[in-house]
Design a protein that fits this description.
The complex is a heterodimer. Chain A is an all-alpha fold. Chain A is built from 3 helices and no strands. The mean pLDDT of chain A is 83. Chain B is of the alpha+beta class. Chain B folds into 2 domains: 145 residues, Penicillin-binding protein 2a (Domain 2) (Alpha-Beta Complex); 336 residues, 3-Layer(aba) Sandwich (Beta-lactamase), CATH 3.40.710. Chain B is built from 17 helices and 18 strands. The C terminus of chain B is likely disordered. The chains are: A mainly alpha, B alpha+beta. Chains A and B meet through α1 and α2 of A and β2, α9 and α17 of B.
Amino acid sequence: MRPVLYVLTFLSVMGLAFWAYRENYATQQALKDMAALQDDIAALREALTLQRAEWAYLNRPERLRQLATVNFDRLGLFPLTPEQLGAARDISYPPQAPLMGSIDNPQDVMGQVAPDGDFP
Amino acid sequence: MIRTPLRPLARILLARQQGVNPDSIERENLRLRHEAMRDKSRLRAEGRLLLLGMGFAAAFTLIGARMGLLAATEPMEPRSAAPGAEITATRADITDRNGNVLATNMLTHALYAHPRDMVDPKRVAQELAAIFPEFKEEDLYRRFTDGRSFLWIRKVLSPEQMQKVHEIGDPGLLFGPREMRLYPNGALAAHVLGGTSFGAEGVHSAEVIGVAGIEKALDVRMRDPAQAGQPVQLSIDLTLQAAVEEILQTGMTMLSAKGAAAILMDVHTGEILSLASLPAFDPNDRPNNPISGEPGDSPLFNRAVQGVYELGSTFKIFTVANALELGLVTPDSMVDANAPKRVGRFTIKEFQNKNYGPLLSVRDVIAKSSNVGTANLALTIGALRQQAFYKALGFFEPTQIELVEAPGAKPIVPKKWPDITVITTSYGHGISASPMHLAAAYGAIANGGIRMTPTLLHGGVPQTGPRVMSEKTAREARSMLREVVTHGTATMADVPGYEVAGKTGTAEKPNKQGGYDTDKVVNTFAMMFPASEPKYVLVVTLDEPVDTSGSEPRRTAGWTAVPVAAEIVRRAAPLLGLRPVVEPKAPDTLTAASN
């Protein structure tokens, strides 16, 4: 019995050592991956900052004004003027239906009115 | 343990036989026993001390070893935690009220040299001079070869320049990373932003410090690492600012003015939506401070905040408001306006020597801008009460706006306050203040009498500051200002639908001889809209404008500042989301009734 126990203990120690060895390398690899990822994140953040600056630069009012002038024949953009703002009450609601023309397809509707029916 | 008896019977008997005192045996045994006990406890104590000493030694060794290890290893960032966004930026961004970027940071590089590592200084100098036209080859070569071991070449490189320097391929040329401040909108809102420069510079980094404007005023906040990820949001509206600057620039060119300034302010929160001063500069490439000439003529000079001018007749409404508040007059009271008026050796005249008198209603004093009428009102008010009112409106101290230039712009007020000062200050002469002061004071009239503290930071709440006049006085003052526009000196400002109410001011510029130049004026138009319930105050100032559209040059504000301001309202009001009121609100066709 005892030799079997010895062998088992020895094997389990070997197994644990192997596991610890693997874990050690896995941890180191994870840390390396993490560092690489963080480098990527930093680079992306930097790129994002740069792109935000670029976006702000491309959307500067001066440039937009020039673009609106250059493309006036296609876009016809003017500065916003007071006349472009209206009041909600100037819009008819409900939308008026177009005026009805002559009724050329009349239909008769017939029914029976029950004396004790519902009359809403 | 078997204890040795103190009085062993055998020895006692023996002692008794020999006639010795048996007690001495007992004492001897007791002594031996005590000695044994003492030895034992000493041994134990020594063991404990040894253990303790070893424990301490181990602990100290451990700590010492750890400290030595920490001191000897290269510092490393913690690798198992993700860094936050705040690590990437060293200086907070600046955005407008809608989040558009006004200032941000960009990573770039600085160029420095280690001349001792240089392989071929002659060729390096030659090629660098070809890349950077501002360097001379001989100068560079001399600096590379005079024995120094370190030398800065350029603070900031563009990526193209950096690539070209790389291509020289000399090991003595090195790059240091630099965070550079970038203002993507160029000269837009330049005076608000100010600018930055490098502070302490090292090879691996350099600190960016604000040198003017809000960059300097809020430098500590911008550099605070805890808040670096959080942009500073200004109350400025980028679109509005662009429109205002465009119109102001056009007006300035058309009227051949030397400079111009405009301030658009929310009258409830005190937020500045637009602050323009022309001529402007590019904060990306901020010019150096002028060493010669008038500092006020430099593009760096912020006319809206730093410039203190005599603001002329725009002050008349304060005199009238003061008199109304004190209950001295009502809007329809008649006052003596018989011109010219003689006070001691001074003569008070009206514009073009007119005479609006002998009597004029208070309303018409404002609408016609009568100097004499205002002067007589001011004499009724008296020096002390007049001073107190100006003080309450903030004309005695610099504005508290978040610009580093603001505390320096202290209004120039007379030291003594005799009757002639009472008269001249009542129509804005002999007292100088910045357009920002004027905007704040008109804000108080516009919002119903609450003193305004203008701010450039977004997120303002309606101000509740001290009350300087009653709501009734403010309302009456507004109706008078409205009449200035409907049938007074500022009829060109009557933008349909926006009920503009304001007051013009034309002040001749003081010259070096101590007098006034008649052909050099500062024209101001201070106004609010919509008059029935003002939301915004606009102040437009033009420096030395002249309108040449007529037969002879005209220099009054009604012909210069007013049309510019009207155009600003026409463009800005729709951007502010203000709907024009086409007619007085008609009663609804449907009548509400309860059954």
